[in-house]
Structures are given as structure tokens and as C-alpha cells.
Design a protein that fits this description.
heterotrimer, A: Ubiquitin-like (UB roll), Rossmann fold, six-stranded parallel beta sheet, 16 helices, C: alpha+beta, Arc Repressor Mutant, subunit A, Glutaredoxin, 2 domains, 7 helices
Chain lengths: ~550, ~425, ~170
């Protein structure tokens, strides 16, 4: 465990830690481009050159292991001179694209130029020119002139996705990044190269030229695309999701998200007719339609319960809080009605992030339903009971809570649906279930209201409200609370009361610190070890994890 | 002096095994097998042999870095650097064309000393004729039991493979060579780790230049004292191959002791100035990567590693070229700068951008569009490419000549800047 | 795929290296010697054969100046223009070749016979100026010798490579 002195501060670090890692872990800034904690060391950008006492030459901090007694100066005249020199070399051929470049505002070339560069240029030549809009694949565009040849993108495709689509071609000043003809960059994680590109050389086609990043409100949230529940940042502008980027979470998704999650906005910005808007019910009177709708729903369900022919359909896309309310409705006023949980599975689990279970909260649903409502039952059983006439009233959370579902098979067959006399549906996006509803209560979609999900490995994470609702709807949590109140003769419970009940009544949630959940990396349910299911660490992070050094850096 | 390294040059069919043997070849390896490997390393150390590829590092010391107990899982490798691409250098080419068995025997002795079981020769792609000669010689050696299993019934086994490059000066840098040899782009690697710990395929490796290795049989045959007796002092020993080119009457390869002076090389062996009525103006002693010397700086200059270093340049690969007073030094500077920009591998920022920048500035000066401030820019940019800011010394090799041309022929640059044309009648 | 015994010869090359990846450069040479350049399909074949990705192999092919990714003329005329050859008259030789063949650097004559490129130091400074035509060095070049050699090649002959006729190796 060597001790080094860096800018006068003493740090003791595990064997094998590099100067750069030691600095980053202690909040000392050493600039870097080609280093990334998840990738192998390239050492080619040279911006991290630092002065080390007794070393005759500069060393790159990213590849120099700390030795006992080492003394490093990140603010010395020499170190600053080297940083200025490297910045100058990087900028001489770099195009003056800032006014039109997506990266502006989050560009390390801009940041380091400001902090470590010089204010004027002495480059008088014609800058090198090259292709500015090379298609690398369905999602990614490459601008050669902006590229600083750090090779992060190439290393990502070799070491993380192990697909190797990107290569470096030619040599010297003509070096360029490209794909082999006929083999585009089209792996399911291609968008991550755009995140790790330190400059605007790689851009995401769906975001290109759409917005300045400083106009985006970045809300930390959790993806609802599958049971992985990757941590994300939702970048919204004018109440629309403009882009989704990964948020570092070593216990779940590390630095990455898949392209489907990145493009989730497409599943929210549905064409007209897909988004459910405005309550649909029978009685017309002078009360607010929502009040009337909810009261009618309560009466319908109550009579169904009296007749003993009521059931409940939950959704693995609903939040834990919503499911607790649903469970209590089922157990209490609906007289122990059975609760059914559909499956949304496509493809297979891959080796990185994607799960075949395309719902974010199956484990959460099963945990809550098992503790409070006698367990989750398969929908095939519900279909049988419907056809047999045992159930004629259904309270359903629909499949469209996280986005459009017009490309998914229906959760209940048409024949089964036809047997229902009363179908109360809470959903956000249209499906055969919502079409068949006798009483439709549109709800907020993912991103419009907050709640928690439990991923497949037992990690409880917060999905935030990043947008105001895009339709005439109410949060499902509120509607379910109102129903609960009406059916039990009590009041709708507040969120903190629901959280308290979860912790009190379900051992898995006993130790959860609910206030700490938003914008965090989540918490494991009792008995879970979510981090063990995270993708294996790669690159520097592989060694860092075993060293116990936090893998800082972006 | 008696020709030893080049003793077979000019002999008909010198490249054939039977001729090499008839003239005393493969006696040294027989003698070496009777010595302990470490004893041979000590002999090479004591001889003072320094690398002939450009760096001048003590060969014996380098050999000493290799592990003494290789295993089948972690064997020792020897790589022969036959990439010879430093402008002005052409000595290894003739060694391989005319005396390939000398190189093979050298490798055998070196492999025995360093417990090496596999030798790779990396020969530049353009050297097709030398490659054919060397590869044929390797086949001859295998057929005669001089390579492969149980060589000369010594119990020692060694394989040799000749690998062709494909046109990249950077592959003369040892870590780039290893990268290329393993199947790659020829990108230099970060050090540490060093080749003796982690080289080709991760195995301990020594990389030696062709000429350096060819001295080894001589040391074994004739002894350390003989080797040390050639040369001016203990630090600059043994016969040296000088390449002489440029504006001399007799360009070529000359085997001479390092007591030879620059003037002897140019005017005696080289026959003096090529062009009638011309005088010497500039001289590059060791390949385009070293600082250029003015004619004045060539007076009383012994062509050994240390003397040339004291004069502010380097012996390097002993690739000397002379320029007469009809030479446009700015054109030479531009052509030199172009070479490095063309050959930069592109990995690291200062070299990739800096070599191109220096070439562009000098080219603009030659077009008559330069300013005096440009000279300061060249000096500053070149300075920023040196002394550890890059992964490998190709950047230093580009920077040093540029700095020396601007410093020592500043008036020619200024003439272009002020008058838009060269101060001298061009070639 | 590329002539008789291609796969057999390829296998022999691969067997010479401790790891298959080491054979990528000799395989590229083998393809170029049979086809005249390295087609994309060959890079894919080599990649599959050695367990590499095609983009990695393409990166190797394009890094080195001697591998061609497109067909060239029958005779690739490579003129050295680095300092030592320049000092001894390479520039006029290059200018003469351009004029004689009617091409710029990088171009191929319309009849497909000659491609002209410039290269860096060939390691033949003692007999400069030097050019390389395909595999052969032609040294001690001047205008007359240039005409001799190019005319001979155009006639389908094989002029003797190496130094000029006046040259002996060693005095």
C-alpha cells in the first residue's frame, strides 16, 4: 500500500493503482481523454503528462503505478507547459465546429482548452480535412475532423461488446476510424461509443442537431425497458424526452445502456390514438369526470367482489408502490381476489445488459404480491377462469405503463376478454385490453410520475418524474389510492405511508432507506446481491474492483 | 584496416553456405558451444560492443536482462531488427545480401548465450532481394543441421523465421516491431513493461540490429582484446560499417574503425565532393534523425558515438550524407520533415499532429509565404515533441533535425522569408 | 480461392508462427502476390482463418504502404524521394518519368502497364537515385537509364535489376 504525495497531499493507495486513479479517487483533477476506467490503457492522448520528482522525463499518469514515496506535481510549471503543448497539438487541426457541434457544453476539448490550454493560436496552415459525416451504422455518425484518435470507441467494441466492428485505418495524420464494408456498427450497445467519445466526433443520429445540451434538464432515473433497470439520465426539453444517457451504476449497468433504452423516447412519443387520454365511463353527471369515473369504478368492483367473481390483473411494469396498493385492494375490499401477472418476454438474456424479460419490476411485483396478496398467478389461469365463467369483473393495470405496446402480443386472449362484464383498466398506452375496457382510467406513463422498481437481481431503484403528463390522465398511484380509500371507507394513503407499510410488512424491504433512493444507484432488497449480477468489470475497472479503489472517471 | 565484418563482400557466391564455410564460417558457433552462455554474455559486455541500429546501447548489458531459466511456457526470443529504414542507412542490406550466413551464425551464438529457442528476423518489405538471399540461406542452414533440433549435435535447438515487413519506418522501433511481428499495425507500446520482461507474445525478448549481431562471431573467434583494440577508446570499440551518400564521388558502405574522422570519411574514402568546384556545406553523421552539422563542425570530428555526441549530434546508424554548397538546406529540411510526417504511426498526439505541422510550416516558407515568427513556432513545436512527451522517439527524431536546420542554417530560412526564394541555386 | 494450393500455402505460413495471428502479414503478402492487391474478401478470409475481425485486418492492410487495396498497373514504379536520393538527382528522374508516362504520382497509365508512386528511403543511398519496380531495385538512375528500363519493361522484357553497369560492389 504505497503512499504518494500529490500536490502536497499524502495518499495511501492499493498496490498497482496509477497516479491518475489515485488523483481521481481523491478529487484531484488530472486531465485525460483516452483513459476510461472500463477500457484498457492506451496512453496515446498524452494530456495526462505530469511531473514526478526525480523522474527526468514527464510520465503519463494513466499508466504509471504509484510507488512508495512518489511525489507528483499536477500544478507545476512543467506540468502546465506539457498540458498546454498537448492541447495546442490537439487543436491545430481541430475544426471550429463548436457552434454546430452536439458535444458543446459537455466537451472535454472545450473544458480542458479553457483550463489547460492557451487563449490564442499560432497555427497558420490549412487544417487537415476529411469526411465529416461518415455513417458507421444505423445509429452513429463519425466526423473525422473532430476525432482526436483516442481509440476509446475501438476499445469499447473490442473489449466490452467484443464485436470489433470499429478499426483504425491508414497511418499518421491520415489515421481514421471506420468499419469494414458490409459490417456496420450495429451491435445493441452501439450508442455507448457516443457517450465515451470525449469530443463530438461520434454523434447519435437521433439526437444530432436537435438540442444544445445545456437546455436539457437531466433527471436521474431508471430505464423501464427490461428487468435490468439500467440507471439513466433523462434529458428533457420542452416537456419532451430528447435523449437518454447512461448513469454510472456499478451494481447494475456500469457505464452502459442498450440502444433500445437509449431510444426509449420513441416508445413514449406515440402517434395519435396510441396514447390513452381522458377517462371513459358510463355515468354522466355534473361532477368532475375523474371523480365520477373513480367512484363508478369503486362501485363496479365492490359489486363484483360481493358476487365473488372479481379478479385483479397486475403488471410487472407498475411500480412497487402501485403494486402494494393494488395488492391491498385485492386482499381487503375485493375479498382476497386472485392477482395475475403477465410475462413480457422477447429473445434471450445477453451477456451484457439486455434481459429477455422486458418489464422493469417483475421481481418487485412477485415480492409484493407474494407477501400481501397470496402470490402472483399466471395469466393462462385467468383466461381459463374467464372462459369458465368464474370471473366476470377485472381490475387491471395494463401492459402499456412504460410506453407503446402495439408491437406486443395481447396479455389476455380475445375470447377471454369477451367474457368480462366489467373491465376496469388503468393504462397509459393503447392495447387490446384497453380497447375492451368498460371503464378506462388513463394513467401517467413512465417518466411522468415517480416510483420504484426492483430489477431481476433484487436492486430497488427510483424512476423519476421527468415530464409533466402528456395526456389527460392521472398517476396510477393516485387513482389506486383513491380506489383504496373508497373501497375501504378510509383515505388514500400518502406515498410515505405506503413506503412505511412496505418496510413494515415485507421483510425484503425492511432495511430500505426510502429518502435516499432518488438519484442514487439504488439499494439491494434484503438477501439480494445485485452487484454480483452486474456485467463483469472490464479494463482498468477490473483491477480497480479487486483493489477496492472506486472506478472514477467518465 | 583488414575487413572482418565485410570479409566476404565481393567474393563470388559469398551468400552460399559452402562458400561461407570454406572461408571459415560456422567455426565460431562450434567454439561458442564449448563456452557457457553467461561467459559469452560477459565477453560481449567486456568487448564494449554497442548497438549499431541507432541507440548505441551496450549489447552485453542488454543481453544480461534476459531470464536465465526460460521454460517451454515462457521461452526467450531473439528478434533481429532488419527493418533498416533510417534515411541514409543501407549497411544491413548488404550484410544480408552478401553474407546472410554471417547473420545466421551470429544469431545462433546469440541465441545460445541468451538461452533463446526462437529467432525472428524482421526485414523491411522493400528488401525483397536480401530477403530471398537470407531465406535461402536459412533453408540451407536447416538442411545442414545448423538450425532446428540438436544443432551440430550440441543438444541446443533453435528455430529461425524470416518475417517481411510491408513499408513502415516505425517498425524499426523495437516495440512497434514486436507489435507488427505479432500481427498488428506496428504501433509502439508503452514502456514499462520492457521487452526483456514482456516482449513478443509476452515472452522475454531481445531486439538487436543486424550489424550489431554480426560482430558477435568475430568476438568469439578473435577474442575480446582484439575487438577492443579496434577503435579510439574503451567505449567505442570494434569495426564499424559507415554508410556514406549524398554529394560525394564514392558513396557506399565502408568498414572502418571508429578512429576515422568525418573528413577522412568524406574526402579520402568518399573521394571528396561529387560536383566540380563545390565545397562541403553540411553533413549528417548518423541518419536523418540526428542534428545536422555544418562544415566547420566536421573539422577534427572522430566518427565514434561519444565524439559525435560531444559535437552536438549522434552517430546513430552511422548513415552519413554530405551536402555541398549548392544545396538548398530548407529543401532538405522540408524533405526530412515530410519523411517523418509520412512515417508517424499516428497513435499519440504530439507526433501525429506535430510532424504534419512542421512539414506544413517549412513547405509554406518554401512557397515564400513564411514569417520570422514561423521559426519560433517550429522551435517551440519541435521542443514540445521531445523528451518523453510521446510514446516513442520518432517524434524526437523528427524534432531534432528540424531544430538543427533552423538553428544552423537560419539565414537560408530568412532568405526565403524575406525574398520568397532560396538563397542558393538549387540542385 | 486465389490460385492452386493457396490454402495449403496459407496453412504452412500459419504453422510457422507461435500464434496464428502472427501470420497476418505473410498471408496479406501471399494474397497480393497472387491477385496483385488485397481485395476485401481476402481480408475477410484471413480474419476468419486467424480469429480476427475484418476491420482489424483492414487496419493492418492500410497501415503499411506496400499493401495495395486496389488493383495497380503491371509495373508499380516506386521512386524514392527522400534526402539522399534527392541530393543525387531523384527529382529530375521523377519529373522525367511523369512526363514520359504521362501520369501524375498515384496514377496508372491508360494501358494499365505502369503505376507511379513516390516512396521514402529504400536503403539504397550508396547507388542513388534508386527506384523500385514491383520487387526489383533499379539503382544509379538517371534520365538515360530510366528510359532504358521503362522501355524494356514496356516491351515485355525483364531488365536486370540492381546497380548501374559501371558499379562494382567493393573496390
Amino acid at each position: 500500500m504505497p503512499t504518494l504525495t500529490i500536490d502536497g497531499r499524502q495518499l495511501t493507495v492499493p498496490d498497482g493503482t496509477t497516479i491518475l486513479q489515485a488523483a481521481l479517487a481523491s478529487g484531484i483533477e488530472i486531465p485525460y481523454y483516452c483513459y476510461h476506467p472500463a477500457l484498457s490503457i492506451a496512453g496515446n492522448c498524452r494530456i495526462c503528462l505530469v511531473e514526478v520528482e526525480k523522474f527526468p522525463k514527464p510520465v503519463i499518469a494513466c499508466n504509471t503505478a504509484v510507488s512508495e514515496g512518489m511525489v507528483v506535481f499536477t500544478q507545476s510549471e512543467k506540468t502546465k507547459e506539457w498540458e498546454r503543448a498537448v492541447m495546442e497539438f490537439l487543436l491545430i487541426n481541430h475544426p471550429l465546429d463548436c457552434p454546430i457541434c452536439d458535444q458543446a457544453g459537455e466537451c472535454k476539448l472545450q473544458e480542458y482548452s479553457f483550463r489547460h490550454g492557451q487563449p490564442t493560436t499560432r497555427f497558420q496552415e490549412e487544417k487537415s480535412h476529411g469526411p465529416k459525416k461518415r455513417d458507421l451504422g444505423p445509429g452513429v455518425v463519425y466526423d473525422w475532423e473532430r476525432c482526436i484518435k483516442c481509440t476509446r470507441c475501438i476499445r469499447f467494441c473490442e473489449e466490452v461488446t467484443k464485436t470489433g466492428e470499429l478499426g483504425m485505418f491508414l497511418r499518421g495524420v491520415h489515421e481514421e476510424i471506420g468499419t469494414f464494408p458490409g459490417r456496420p456498427l450495429d451491435n445493441p450497445y452501439s450508442g455507448n461509443v457516443v457517450d465515451i467519445c470525449p469530443v463530438g466526433a461520434l454523434t447519435w443520429k437521433k439526437f444530432r442537431f436537435r438540442s444544445r445540451v445545456w437546455f436539457l434538464t437531466n433527471v436521474p432515473s431508471t430505464c423501464a425497458g427490461c428487468a435490468r433497470g439500467c440507471s439513466i439520465d433523462v434529458g428533457a426539453f420542452r416537456n419532451e424526452v430528447y435523449r437518454i444517457t447512461p448513469r454510472l451504476n456499478q451494481a447494475v449497468n456500469r457505464w452502459w445502456i442498450c440502444d433500445a433504452g437509449r431510444d426509449w423516447a420513441e416508445r413514449l412519443n406515440a402517434p395519435p390514438g396510441q396514447r390513452l387520454s381522458g377517462a371513459r365511463f358510463t355515468r354522466q353527471d355534473d361532477r368532475s369526470p375523474w371523480t365520477a369515473a373513480v367512484e363508478e369504478a369503486a362501485e363496479t368492483l365492490a359489486s363484483g367482489a360481493t358476487a365473488g367473481k372479481v379478479a385483479v390483473l397486475a403488471s410487472p411494469r407498475a411500480t412497487v408502490e402501485e403494486l402494494l396498493l393494488l395488492s391491498k385492494i385485492a386482499r381487503g375490499p375485493l375479498g382476497g381476489a386472485a392477482v395475475y401477472l403477465p410475462a413480457h418476454e422477447t429473445g434471450a438474456d445477453d451477456e451484457l445488459l439486455i434481459r429477455r424479460d422486458r418489464a422493469p419490476n417483475r421481481r418487485g411485483a412477485e415480492t409484493v404480491l407474494a407477501a400481501v396478496a397470496g402470490g402472483a398467478r399466471p395469466t393462462a389461469e385467468l383466461e381459463q377462469r374467464l372462459v369458465a365463467g368464474e370471473v366476470d369483473t377485472l381490475l387491471a393495470l395494463g401492459p402499456g405503463l412504460a410506453g407503446r405496446v402495439d408491437d406486443e402480443p395481447p396479455v389476455l386472449g380475445a375470447e377471454a376478454l369477451a367474457r368480462l362484464r366489467h373491465l376496469v383498466v388503468l393504462d397509459a398506452f393503447r392495447s387490446p385490453l384497453s380497447d375492451a375496457a368498460t371503464l378506462l382510467l388513463p394513467v401517467t406513463a413512465w417518466g411522468e410520475s415517480a416510483g420504484t422498481y426492483v430489477n431481476f437481481a433484487g436492486r430497488l431503484q427510483w424512476a423519476a418524474a421527468a415530464l409533466a403528463p402528456q395526456a389527460n390522465c392521472r398517476p396510477a398511484f393516485v387513482l389506486l389510492g383513491d380506489l383504496f380509500g373508497l373501497l375501504t371507507g378510509g383515505s388514500a394513503p400518502a406515498r410515505h405511508a405506503v413506503q412505511a407499510a412496505l418496510s413494515a410488512e415485507i421483510p425484503a424491504f425492511a432495511a430500505i432507506d426510502w429518502d435516499a433512493l432518488p438519484a442514487s444507484s439504488g439499494q439491494d432488497l434484503a438477501g439480494a446481491d445485485a452487484a454480483s449480477a452486474a456485467p463483469p468489470p472490464t479494463g482498468a475497472a477490473e483491477k480497480l474492483t479487486s483493489l477496492g479503489v472506486p472506478a472514477e472517471g467518465r | 584496416m583488414e575487413r572482418t565484418l565485410t570479409r566476404n563482400f565481393g567474393v563470388e557466391n559469398s551468400h552460399r553456405l559452402e562458400v561461407y564455410r570454406r572461408r571459415g564460417g560456422y567455426a565460431a558457433i562450434a567454439k561458442a558451444f564449448k563456452l557457457e552462455p553467461d561467459a559469452i554474455i560477459e565477453m560481449v559486455k567486456a568487448s564494449g560492443l554497442r548497438g549499431r541500429g541507432g541507440a548505441g546501447f551496450s549489447t552485453g548489458v542488454k543481453w544480461g536482462f534476459m531470464p536465465k531459466n526460460p521454460t517451454p511456457e515462457r521461452p526467450n526470443y531473439l528478434v533481429v531488427n532488419a527493418d533498416e529504414s533510417e534515411p541514409g542507412t543501407f549497411k544491413d542490406r548488404y550484410l544480408m545480401e552478401l553474407d546472410p550466413h554471417l547473420l545466421i551464425e551470429s544469431c545462433l551464438i546469440s541465441a545460445w548465450a541468451m538461452r533463446v529457442s526462437r529467432v525472428f528476423v524482421y526485414i523491411r518489405g522493400e528488401y525483397v532481394f536480401p530477403y530471398r538471399r537470407l531465406d535461402d540461406a536459412v533453408q540451407e542452414a536447416y538442411a545442414a543441421g545448423l538450425l532446428g533440433q540438436n544443432i551440430l549435435k550440441s543438444g541446443f535447438s533453435c528455430d529461425m523465421l524470416v518475417h517481411r515487413g510491408a513499408g513502415a519506418y516505425i517498425c524499426g522501433e523495437e516495440t512497434a516491431l514486436m507489435d507488427s511481428l505479432e500481427g498488428g499495425r506496428g504501433n509502439p507500446r508503452l514502456k514499462p513493461p520492457f521487452p526483456a520482461q514482456y516482449g513478443v507474445y509476452g515472452k522475454p525478448t531481445t531486439v538487436n540490429n543486424v550489424e550489431t549481431l554480426c560482430n558477435v562471431p568475430l568476438i568469439i573467434e578473435r577474442g575480446v582484446d582484439w575487438f577492443k583494440s579496434i577503435g579510439p577508446d574503451e567505449r567505442n570499440t570494434g569495426p564499424k560499417l559507415y554508410c556514406l551518400s549524398g554529394h560525394v564521388k564514392n558513396p557506399g558502405v565502408f568498414e572502418l574503425p571508429m578512429t576515422t574522422t568525418a573528413e577522412e570519411l568524406i574526402f579520402e574514402h568518399g573521394g571528396g565532393m561529387l560536383r566540380h568546384g563545390r565545397k562541403l556545406k553540411a553533413f549528417v553523421p548518423g541518419g536523418s534523425s540526428v542534428p545536422v552539422l555544418t562544415a566547420d563542425e566536421c573539422v577534427d570530428l572522430r566518427m565514434d558515438f561519444d565524439s559525435v555526441a560531444r559535437r552536438g549530434s549522434m552517430l546513430g546508424s552511422a548513415a552519413a550524407y554530405a551536402m555541398d554548397d549548392g544545396t538548398d538546406m530548407v529543401l532538405v529540411a522540408e524533405r526530412t520533415a515530410h519523411f517523418y510526417a509520412h512515417e508517424s504511426c499516428g497513435q499519440c498526439t504530439p507526433c501525429r499532429e506535430g510532424t504534419g505541422w512542421i512539414e506544413k510550416i517549412i513547405a509554406r516558407i518554401r512557397r515564400g509565404e513564411g514569417t520570422e515568427a514561423d521559426l519560433a513556432t517550429i522551435e517551440s513545436a519541435a521542443g514540445n515533441m521531445m523528451n518523453g512527451t510521446t510514446i516513442c522517439p520518432l517524434a524526437d527524431a523528427a524534432a531534432m533535425p528540424a531544430l538543427s536546420f533552423v538553428k544552423k542554417f537560419r539565414d537560408e530560412f530568412l532568405h526565403y522569408i524575406r525574398h520568397g526564394r532560396s538563397a542558393v541555386a538549387s540542385l | 480461392m486465389y490460385g492452386p494450393d493457396f490454402e495449403k500455402e496459407a496453412a504452412e505460413l500459419v504453422a510457422k508462427y507461435p500464434q496464428p495471428r502472427g501470420a497476418v502479414m505473410p498471408l496479406l503478402w501471399l494474397v497480393q502476390s497472387r491477385v496483385g492487391h488485397v481485395p476485401l474478401e481476402a481480408e475477410q478470409w484471413i480474419a476468419a482463418r486467424l480469429g480476427l475481425t475484418p476491420s482489424f485486418v483492414h487496419g493492418i492492410t492500410t497501415f503499411y504502404t506496400m499493401y495495395r487495396t486496389a488493383p495497380a498497373g503491371k509495373h508499380v514504379v516506386q521512386v524514392c524521394t527522400t534526402v539522399s536520393c534527392m541530393l543525387r538527382g531523384a527529382d529530375p528522374v521523377l519529373a522525367h518519368i511523369k512526363q514520359k508516362l504521362g501520369v501524375e504520382v498515384g496514377e496508372t497509365t491508360p494501358d494499365g502497364m505502369f503505376t507511379l508512386v513516390t516512396v521514402e528511403c529504400l536503403g539504397s543511398c550508396g547507388t542513388a537515385p534508386t527506384i523500385q519496380v514491383n520487387d526489383d531495385y533499379f539503382e544509379d538512375m538517371d534520365i538515360a537509364r530510366t528510359n532504358e528500363i521503362l522501355d524494356a519493361l514496356a516491351r515485355g522484357e525483364q531488365p536486370k535489376p540492381g546497380p548501374g553497369p559501371h558499379r562494382v560492389y567493393v573496390e
